[in-house]
């Protein structure tokens, strides 16, 4: 039964109020799937096509004097959509540099990962929804490789603009799964988590990248999302219409 038709309203105003309430409920149900995601994946190439043409994610950019990189095959890591990876860069005076940015609460989770899923290296997914203060686990992935020649790749993970964690690793003989970088404490709500990836020397294949994965691993402290505010406002408007109808009736 349509709740908008279950009770005949006395006026057009109350009918509009009830229908607005229905719309708010339906919108809330529609947003549930977004709220029930369990991780955020930042893929450099967003088109899902391993075609040599990179459509850059808005959360990715180049840093230093790096302005571009070469494209390569996708990664087979869990949740990867199949887009291109990148390698190297055109840095001259600075190391080849890739920059990533993710803001929990503002950027909603976009990947369903059941709790206990093996992400690689023995690390299991928490299954917790992100978007609030807590501990976040950060992973990186790239296609399996044996030819990175720029030395160890450095990842600097920062919150509130200050480095929280610096990790250096040899990318060779790794890839096609999520590689654990580290855990960070996120407390400055609405501030971005940024990751800077740099090579040690600017060789042709100085480093490789497909994307990053952010997963909250402690219980979520909720940050109200824009959808929540919109539904709240819609509900208030519906109540106002309904009250107006009663006064006229």
TrEMBL record:
Alphabetical list of InterPro entries matching this protein: Ice-binding_C (IPR013424)
Domain of life: Bacteria
Domain Ice-binding protein C-terminal: 222-244
Signal as UniProt keyword: yes
Key words of the record: Aminotransferase, Signal, Transferase
GO molecular function: transaminase activity
Leader sequence segment: 1-38
NCBIfam families per record: PEP_CTERM
Protein name as catalogued: Adenosylmethionine-8-amino-7-oxononanoate aminotransferase
Organism: Thiohalobacter thiocyanaticus
């Amino acid at each position: 039964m349509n709740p908008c038709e279950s009770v005949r309203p006395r006026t057009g105003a109350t009918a509009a109020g009830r229908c607005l309430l229905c719309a708010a409920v339906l919108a809330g149900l529609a947003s549930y799937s977004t709220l029930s995601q369990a991780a955020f994946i930042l893929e450099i190439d967003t088109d899902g096509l391993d075609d040599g043409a990179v459509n850059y994610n808005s959360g990715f950019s180049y840093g230093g004097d790096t302005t571009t990189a070469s494209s390569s095959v996708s990664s087979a890591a869990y949740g990867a959509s199949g887009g291109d990876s990148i390698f190297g860069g055109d840095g001259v005076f600075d190391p080849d540099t890739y920059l990533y940015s993710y803001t929990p609460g503002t950027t909603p989770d976009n990947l369903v990962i059941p709790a206990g899923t093996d992400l690689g290296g023995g690390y299991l997914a928490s299954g917790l929804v992100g978007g609030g203060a807590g501990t976040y686990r950060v992973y990186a992935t790239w296609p399996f490789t044996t030819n990175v020649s720029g030395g160890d790749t450095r990842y600097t993970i920062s919150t509130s603009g200050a480095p929280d964690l610096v990790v250096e690793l040899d990318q060779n003989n790794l890839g096609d799964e999520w590689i654990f970088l580290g855990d960070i404490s996120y407390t400055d709500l609405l501030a971005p988590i940024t990751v800077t990836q740099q090579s040690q020397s600017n060789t042709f294949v100085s480093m490789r990248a497909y994307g990053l994965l952010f997963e909250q691993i402690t219980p979520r402290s909720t940050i109200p999302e824009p959808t929540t505010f919109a539904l709240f406002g819609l509900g208030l408007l519906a109540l106002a219409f309904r009250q107006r109808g009663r006064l006229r009736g």
